[in-house]
Design a protein that fits this description.
273 residues; alpha+beta; 4-stranded antiparallel beta sheet; 4 strands; 44% helix
Amino acid sequence: MTVRKIRAKLVLQLRAEGLSGRAIAASQGMSRKSIAAVLEAADATETSWDDVAELTDEQVYARLFPGRGEHESVFAQPDWEQVHREMARVGVTLKLLHGEYTDRCAHAKAPAMGYDRWCKTYQRHVMVTGAASRVGHKAGQTVEVDWSGPTMELTDPVTGATRKVYLFVACLPFSRYAFVWPSTDMQQDAWLRAHVAMFNRRDLPSPRRRDRPQRRLQGDGRPLLSSRSTRADTEAKRQIWRREHRGARSDLGDRRPTGPHVPHGARTGRGNR
């Protein structure tokens, strides 16, 4: 059994195309330490891309790192390339392929690996060979929708007539929560009604909205200025507050006691002179 290895052939190919070690690591998602190990081994053995262009990945790795990364497994190993091709077919799952694998091992009287080891080994094969790329998903942000390939049949209990039923499938890629809705056709109207039914499900998680700032209130119930407010909003609120403040001052001025006008000099006694 082969453990996870560096894709040495790809590294040498990208190096021959003029990419640096840093660029190779950034474009392929590899560590710079692994890239440096391949390049150092190639320089030590004087191996270039022309020398390994016709070789397989396994042969290139064995040439650069002889006797490294190999150990024997007690379990029978299937053809993982064939397993990966079978996984591309509609309705084929790892559980189904593992059942066929155990049947072959029982017929050949060979030890078979368990389902958990089967899944981990297949995932390691996919990551090493680059057969699939990892796509990151965040909770509640995306949903994948499509019509399912397999169909069902609806039988009328009175007349016995059968009718084909198509399945609209929606899946949240982060949680793998699935929603299935049946339809008698795949027209645009059915496509839209399926989306409406999907969004009307109350048990579907709703995305958290972080773009709406929380409003804090003053003692009189008026909202405080938020740190996320724009400069124009802040200036407009200040002008409103100033107008209200000036109105309050004018009200206080109207409440001052009224009386006979007293000259300013009379208050100091100079008016009697």
